[in-house]
Every structure is written in C-alpha cells, then in structure tokens.
Design brief:
Elements lengths: L16 H17 L7 H11 L3 E5 L7 H8 L7 E4 L6 H10 L4 E3 L16 E5 L7 H13 L4 E4 L6 H8 L1 H8 L8 H9 L2 H16 L3 H9 L7 E10 L2 E10 L2
Parallel strand pairs: 1-2, 1-4, 2-3, 4-5
Antiparallel strand pairs: 5-7, 6-7
C-alpha cells in the first residue's frame, strides 16, 4: 500500500476539543489495557540511558498514551524515572489524571508544544507514540532534525503498520469504542452522549483510525527521512518493527554518537 496523507479530524484546529479528547482517551484506554508497547521497553530504556538524564519528554501525548502500563515496566530498572507529557493540543484533563495516579513520576507542560520546534527548556529522551504519522514528510523530517540539532535522543513508536490486515482491523474500530466507553475514566456524560446517542466519537475514531494506517511510515520511508537530515551521521539510528502480541510497532530511535 502506498502512503496517503489524508486529513484526520484530530489535527483540525476547529475540531471540538471535548470530542478530540474523547478520542485520545479511547486510545489511552486500549493501549494500556492491551499493553501495546511492552515489546519496545528495551528500546525506550536505551534511549533514556543515551540521554544522560532520568527524564522522558513525551510529545504528542494525546490522552497520556500507554504510559500507565509502560511506567510499570520501566520502573523495574529505573525507579526514579520522570515523564513529562506535552502536545500541540494538550488534553489537560487526561494529563492531570495521570499526575494524580503517580505524582512522583508524571508531570506535563500546559502550553502547546510543537514537536518540530521543541523548547530548549524541555529536556530528556524525546518520545512519540502513535503520533508520528500525523506529520507530512517535510514536518516529520523537521521533528528529527530538531532532535539532531539539539543533540537530543529521540524515539518514534507507532501502533500499526500500513497493510491490509491493519486497515481491516481499523474498519471495526467503532465496535471497540462502543464496547469500551463505559469503562473509560473519569466518567463523562458527554462521552456517553456522543458515543451512543449522537455517535460522533465512534465515527471520528473510525475515520482517523483508517487514515492513520494509510499515513503510517514504513521502515524504508523512515530510513529515507533519516538519510536526508543534516549531520545525520552524528547520530546512531535504529529502525524496525517490534511485535507485542497482535500489535506491530514500527519504531525509529536515534541518539548522538559517543
């Protein structure tokens, strides 16, 4: 399948904030429930080690992603790890819920953070989970170039590959939304209303999920982005696909040599 960069509702500035948050809350729920990113824990640990800090800067955090389960794996070898959430459209309610869960570990940046131009004050191993596909090649390259220029280790992790099975799987995503919504916390009447009475959330997740598959970069395409970077030889790069159960996670990690 060729990469097609159609629009996602989540990226549109006019899209209602509460509906966007219901979608990212759903993604947060399923990624933690099924421990999507268990298979890339060693890669995350490598990035943290190479950063020379005990800090992760998570970009495009959405509803805080899979960190509720990830942190349980990572703290086995690094009990004092700190994770800071950020997003261009920050879901502050979800970030606050994560901080309440573990205030010693989690924090967040309240203001919008553009992954293409990260503030110098935001430090640590940069991560992106299930968000790199939102960027066109020019912008995706800029994210990586910004990390190289800042000498900041970076890890990109998706939640699907661009193939027919994942496309078909996402066609069925409205069923997942309908089945899981009663279990997503905190409870919100708006989430119930816009899932069961006016089903905007299932349709929004359905469309964005299908487009996410079509947008996802292949290993070859991520390698091409890396090859085009200025001073790319100053970084070590590792690109591939890890599998955790039924989930395939394309990944790209890079860190300064030496």
């Amino acid at each position: 399948m060729s990469r097609i960069h159609l629009f996602e509702f989540e990226d549109l500035s006019w899209f209602p904030k509460n509906i966007r948050n219901y979608g990212t809350d759903f993604l947060q729920f399923v990624t933690n429930k099924f421990d999507f990113y268990k298979g890339v824990v060693p890669l995350i640990e490598k990035g943290i080690e190479k950063s020379g800090t005990n800090q992760v800067l998570d970009m495009g955090s959405g509803g805080s992603g899979g960190w509720k389960t990830l942190i349980q794996h990572l703290k086995k070898n690094n009990p004092s790890l700190k994770v800071q959430f950020s997003d261009y459209y920050p879901n502050l309610t979800a970030f606050e819920q994560a901080v309440k869960l573990d205030p010693e570990t989690f924090s967040y940046i309240k203001e919008p953070v553009d992954a293409r131009n990260v503030p110098s004050s935001a430090r640590g191993f940069r991560t992106q989970f299930l968000s790199f596909h939102h960027f066109k090649p020019k912008d995706a390259k800029q994210i990586l170039q910004n990390a190289v220029d800042a000498k900041a280790p970076i890890g990109i992790f998706e939640g699907q590959v661009r193939d027919i099975p994942h496309f078909i799987k996402n066609l069925l995503s409205p069923i997942s939304v309908i089945l899981t919504t009663p279990f997503i916390r905190p409870f919100k009447f708006g989430r119930i209303f816009f899932t069961y009475f006016i089903p905007i959330v299932p349709l929004f997740v359905w469309w964005d999920g299908i487009v996410s598959v079509l947008r996802t970069y292949s290993v070859k395409e991520m390698q091409a982005l890396v090859d085009q970077l200025e001073n790319t030889e100053s970084f070590e790069w590792e690109i591939g696909v890890k599998k955790t159960g039924p989930v395939k996670v394309p990944y790209l990690i890079g860190f300064p040599k030496g």
